[in-house]
Design a protein that fits this description.
It contains 8 helices and no strands. It is an all-alpha fold and about 140 residues long. Helix 5 runs antiparallel to helix 8.
Length: about 140
């Protein structure tokens, strides 16, 4: 159950911020690289969050879910992997990506099925860590 919540939360994170295998055009590649840098770099992410109240609310939910700065950073790193898979699978097509994210909100399992095996393994590992962390909380 908590694993599906983690997948749904990742979908939410990605909507606040572009099926694996298609080649991206130059603009899509550059946008993907910039987005991945923002997700992975806490200072860049903090700047982006500070300028967007919705992103701030999502970040607060993530921090409450993870319970630790290390797990929060790991969640954003997994979100970067998910975003990369999604963007590449959609060939950078924003509409295709948006549709996949919307479907993922109501059907997290089908969204997870779109991820590469490596990303899915990282997501499952993170979900276990978050579940363990939540089990230690009073």
């Amino acid at each position: 159950m908590k694993r599906n919540a983690a997948v749904a939360l990742l979908a939410l994170v990605l909507t606040a911020a572009p099926l694996v295998g298609q080649t991206l055009d130059q603009a899509s590649s550059e946008t993907l690289a910039a987005t991945l840098r923002m997700l992975l770099d806490p200072s860049l992410r903090g700047t982006a969050i500070a300028g967007n109240p919705q992103a701030g609310a999502v970040d607060a939910q993530i921090q409450a879910l993870t319970g630790s700065p290390a797990l929060t950073q790991e969640l954003y790193a997994v979100a970067a992997d998910v975003f990369r898979d999604l963007t590449q699978g959609a060939g950078g097509d924003v509409r295709t990506m948006s549709e996949a994210l919307e479907r993922g909100k109501v059907d997290p399992a089908s969204f997870a099925a779109m991820l590469s095996p490596a990303t899915l393994a990282r997501l499952r590992g993170l979900a276990t860590k978050i579940s363990d962390e939540q089990g230690r909380r009073p």
